[in-house]
């Protein structure tokens, strides 16, 4: 009996010691624009980074918040904290203060900042993933499929390890259509649609949506169309995950699967 008690005491101490080994810190309101930016850009274009203070080469996930490109705020989802990841929550400018094209450039600048500074926060520059919900997922797809946005920052979108958007708009975003005087229920595909930029050589893409019968407008079908077109052009690493029973606000059931998919993709590269 004494040996059993000692064993459990030892096990408990070991667990406490392990828990204390990895600590995390959050640095907030880091600007990713330079001094020539407008006052509005300096106010909005900031990011927060949650990272482990020990160890090296942790996968990085960049999270763009939702809000229709007209609102919202930068966030680091609680579920992603202390999962062995460097998590970056990005803020960006909003319509109608700026055009949708400008917001996409913000997303590219933020991603560029992370790609160039990941090592400072114990991140693995070879395993940087982009994610985000709704409008955030749209931004993730746009800066990956249309390589010109990151090229303007001196980077190659194909260096990203994977794109995992949550319920992203894949046709022209409704806010971009509004800029053109087009109703949100009138679907269009132009240069501001991820579908317009489908390409064979894009990084791995995993599309998350809510239930096709509960999602916002045709959001499931948009993602299914993108998946189909990726297959047609010969893109090899993509899939669509539908969270049945969940509507457009399917962030939580998606977050555990996001972590699982990041770990899988990292392991596949080893």
From TrEMBL:
Keyword Transmembrane helix in record: no
Family annotation (InterPro entries): AB_hydrolase_fold, BD-FAE-like_dom, GDXG_lipolytic_enzyme
BD-FAE-like domain: residues covered: 47-211
Quote one Gene Ontology molecular function term: hydrolase activity
Question: Which keywords belong to this entry?
Answer: Hydrolase
- The keyword Hydrolase is assigned to this record: yes
At the top level, the lineage of the source is Bacteria
**Protein name per UniProt:** Alpha/beta hydrolase
